[in-house]
Amino acid sequence: MPDSTLLSLDEPTEVQVRDIAQADILVGIPSFNNAGTIGHVVKAIVAGLAKYFPDARAVLVNSDGGSTDGTPDVVTKASVDLGGMLITDRQSLLHRIVTPYQGVPGKGSAFRTIFEVARRLNVHACAVVDSDLRSINPEWIELLLWPIRSGGFDYVAPYYLRHKYDGTITNSIVCPLTRALYGVQIRQPIGGDFGFSGELARHYADQHVWESDVARFGIDIWMTTEAVASGARVCQSFLGAKIHNPKDPAADLSAMLVQVMGAVFALMEEHQRIWIPRHGSKTVPLFGFQYEVGVEPVNVDVAPMIASFRQGLVDLHPIWEVMLAPEILQALKATEGMPSRNFHIPDDVWVKTVYDCAVAFHRRTLNREHLIKAMTPLYLGRTASFVVETQGLTTREAEDRIERLSEAFERLKPYLLDRWGAIEEVGP
User: What does the buried/exposed string (b/e) look like for 7-41 if buried means 16 or more CB atoms within 10 Å of the residue's CB?
Assistant: First the structure.
């Protein structure tokens, strides 16, 4: 049920919002100790708004999680010389709100504050961007906001060029699973930088999810799924390269996997009447000029990932027996004798592994947090398999492999429906 209680903002923010009263555009930046990068992000936003939306009444909202490195001061003071850009200096129309967010620590709680400010200002179009971006430029602001302002769309997902080993949770699980479930080919459903309508911001603010994993790291997939499930008109915008602070897929992974997959699986339950009847998938409109860009390399060592997977075969075998169909567990065990250079988990085995985990989550076969933590070695094994298979391929060629995996998720959806118990769940 929607939570009709308005989020309380701190008093200085309440005063600012009352003084501004109404705005056309809002751009939000969640942050926590991002002083080294957020200044560039703010400058790109200021320039983008001035260049592409010079007559709009705009608000920049920095929703901060208690930074101790001066991040809010950087946001307040960051400026850009617009004179050399052949555009009029209309920064006077841009209001800046720097506010702490309330609630569970995490990106979702930061976004909740942004949604609430958007609602109170009755804005028409919104965008949110990450605070550690090094590749953002003023054109991103146009590409995230124009489809909302003038194109009749409700939600803009980003379309980046990324290194083939950047975003492996997206590539191996979230992108193909979202496509198979909801029938839309959104390449970066958890990309981090989105555009959305004011109406959709109000819908987000009204949902009662802010004590869940959505408030931590599950916010991106939640936003995308809620948009698709609500019937919003969805598109993508090509933003070029996403250059930020990449993370090794094997490092600090378990908590993020728990929170992202916890949100994905919970959304499957909430929206099962929508995804169960859907078959196949369709492309969504893509805005922006597509061009080749260099991407920063992501170096991956497969040895510890394979070792983690094989240790899981031993230590987690009793748990995996409960989570996975016997033939799938047997197929995973068949990798035990493979040399690292030939290590391989086939697409069909991986797809059924993910579907089995979703069903186990749905059936509450195990404690849900323990179940998703037990997925970590499985995910690392599949990531190692992908790296071994694609190490000689270009990023573009590796993209073709991700497309084949997505097609496998679609083709094997009947396996999920059968195990989920779709007929019993949906009814006649």
Answer: bebeeebeebbeeeeebbbbbbbbbbbbbebbbbb
